[in-house]
């Protein structure tokens, strides 16, 4: 009587496990980089109201406010998110401090958005001070 072969051999199973391990080792760093970039984007998106307030203040007064209070905004600690600890206005600069649940690569670091007046409009310069790796920053901040 012939016996019908069933199942996989040990070598076949080991090859599958090795392939899965290789794929996981490639995917995990890419995913981690993606999540850090998403966390940075949260800060830049939440800074929108502060940027608008700075631009409005400049158009009305011809100068930038010294702080959140002069710009008639809430305290810096009021502007928080899942990854944002605070957002501060400092003489025409919005400082975004990453904290809370932020990745260790960006936790405690600041991205600055500097207002630049342009004949009735305001443009923005983004910088990280070199503490956040360029691969995580949006192209405007590199």
Would you kindly provide a written description of the structure presented here, covering whatever features stand out?
The protein is of the alpha+beta class. It has a single domain (10-141), classed as Glycoprotein, Type 4 Pilin, CATH 3.30.700. 36% of the residues lie in helices and 20% in strands. It has helices spanning 10-46, 48-61; strands at residues 84-89, 93-98, 110-118, 121-127. The protein has a four-stranded antiparallel β-sheet. The longest helix has 37 residues, at 10-46. It is rod-shaped and about 95 Å long. The mean pLDDT is 91.
Keywords:
Glycoprotein, Type 4 Pilin, 142 residues, 4-stranded antiparallel beta sheet, single chain, alpha+beta
Briefly summarize what is shown:
This protein is of the alpha+beta class. It is 36% helix and 20% strand.
